[in-house]
Amino acid sequence: MRRALAIGGIVASSLVAVACTPNQVIFWLDAQEQVASTPDLQDDADLMDAYLALPDTPDTPCSQWYWYAIEAGWTHELWMSFVSYVMPRESNCDPGAYNPSGASGLLQIMPMWADDCGTTREGLFDPLTNLRCGLYIHAVQGKNAWSTW
Fold it and tell me: For a Cys staple, 87 with which of 46, 62, 71, 75, CB 3.0–4.6 Å?
């Protein structure tokens, strides 16, 4: 059991160091609790295998938001081909970015989309909400919804 805690602690602290979202940290802490509660050493190996299988954060502009984008539902491929291109041009990677036209957040979402995305205009400044809304817009209108594309 002590070994499980040590491995789980390494995983959890490593994940925090690579800028995981709060939900991802909670997932790993829950996994650590499950491993710690059982004497099965296979759990240790399974947890470490899952950790080692995580892809590296890509070396792209705005990569500090990569894991948020993945949690929001963007794929790695869409991050590489679209999000990492649009985000620095729209917001300079700043979740608090605001345009006089009303566009807000990382992907500069127009306030008219807030209702469709189940949020408020202010909610568009939340990185995860903004990325989820951006994914919805991408599904509805495609890449051309962003003028920088």
Answer: 62
